[in-house]
Specification:
The protein is 32% helix and 24% strand. The protein has helices at residues 13-24, 65-75, 94-104, 127-133, 165-170, 184-194, 222-236, 242-250, 269-275; strands at residues 3-9, 32-37, 52-57, 80-84, 88-90, 108-115, 135-136, 147-150, 160-164, 199-209, 214-215, 254-256, 261-263, 276-277. The strands form 3 sheets. Strands 1, 2, 3, 4, 5, 6, 7, 8, 9 and 10 form a 10-stranded mixed beta sheet that branches. A two-stranded antiparallel sheet has the order 11-14. A two-stranded antiparallel sheet has the order 12-13. It is globular and about 50 Å long.
Amino acid sequence: MSLSVLTIVKNRASHLAQLIEGLRRSAAAPFELVVVDMGSDPPATIGDLPFRARVVRLDGGGLPLAAARNAAARAASGDYLLFLDVDCIPMCGLVDAMADALAANDALICAQVRYLGPEDARGDWQEAELLGRSSGHPERRFPAHGIRQVENAGLFWSLVFGIHRERFFGLGGFDEAFTGYGAEDTDFGFRARKAGLPLLFMGGAGAFHQHHDSFEPPLQHLEDIVRNANVFRVRWDRWPMEGWLAAFQKLGLVSWDQDRLSVDRLPTDEELARARTEPAA
C-alpha cells in the first residue's frame, strides 16, 4: 500500500525545506509528496527529490486551511494520507511507522510531535540531537511506543496525522464552511468520532515542530476564529477554542455568552505587540 505525504504552505520556505530534508532522510521514502501553496510570494518550490513530488497552487488570499488540505488530498494518489504541518520535520521512521499503523487500523492516527527551540534545526542537524533538545506537548500525552486509543475527539490535531484516503473522502474531508484559521480540525475530529472512526495516538517515530514567532492569544486571526467558532457552535452545540475566546473577551475584543459570540473591535497595534511571543509551538 502506498503513502502520500501532504503539506500546505504560505511563505514558510525555510520550514518547507527542512520538512523536505526530513523526508530525504526517511528510512522509507514516501510514495509522493504533495505541497499546496496558498499564495506564497515567491511561489513555493521543492527541487529535485528521490520520490514523486508536485506543487499545487491555491490562490485567493488568507489562510484557507480546510480548502488547502482538501486540495492536497485530491491531488494525492496514495492509499494512505500523511498530513504534515509545514513547520514539522518528520523523523526518519515516521513514514514507515504511519504506513504500518494505517495498514493495521482503519482510524484517525495522530503521531507525536516534539517542539524545538528558536535555534534548533536552523542549519545542519542530526535527529538524535533534536531529540535531546525537544520537548513534548504538555497536554497531549503519547505512549512511549505503540498505539493508544483516545476518547476525547477534541484532542485530534492536524499537525501530523494519517488516515486512509478513501476514509478521508468518505468523511467529506475538512469542511470548507470553516474559512481561514480555527476550528476546522476540531470539527474534523468530531465528525470522525460521529462516523465511528477511532482516534489513535502513535508513540515513537513522529515529527519535530520547528520554532516560529506566534501570538498568544492569536489576535491576528481574531475575525477568522470568531466566525469559525460560531459555525462550530451551531453544528455541535458547544464552543471550540474556549481558552482563546475567553482571552479575547478579557481584552474587550468580543462579546461572548452561552449562545452568542461577536467581534466588538479589532486589536490595536499595541495589543498585537504584547501578544507576540516566541513559544516553541
